[in-house]
Amino acid sequence: MNELKLIALVGMCGAGKSVAADFFVSHGFQFLRFGQITLDEVQKRDLAPTEENEKQIREQFRQQYGMGAFAILNLPKIENLLAAGPVIIDGLYSWSEYKILKEKYPELKVIAIYASPQTRYTRLTQRKTSTDALLRNRQMSAEKARQRDFAEIENIEKGGPIAMADYTISNEGALKNTIKELKNLLKNL
Description:
The protein has 189 residues and is α/β, with parallel strands linked by helices. Helices cover 54% and strands 12% of the residues.
């Protein structure tokens, strides 16, 4: 790894972004979850961490700051983390966020984690919901996941960053294969 300091993971829900983020953290990267600001605001407002409450807050952020809201709101966190070392961002979503980060950090590398809808929906229905404060993983029905896919593609331009990723990792098979791909990628970054 040369001077690379900032990597963003993109992909649809259930593709394996958290697995990839954990891999990079285990290799010395600091972790930043873009959507954590939503959960922080939920807690600040003393609301239950439900999809409905979180959606309302995400929409309020985007109304106030535009489609690049999460990039704008996370820039101070990125700067602080970068001062201490390389950073892995879990969950870059919108095209506007992508453009803001690429303009501010031209060295940013984007890695798309890909798994087919069928694979992702199976994972999401079998997934155990996290009980920690980060709530990184949540179980979801296949229909709810499909609805979320459509909403994210149509409403927050999620496909753009995936299409423009510098690298794509397939996460269709065994976890060990995905980890092997990530190791090879890290060596070549």
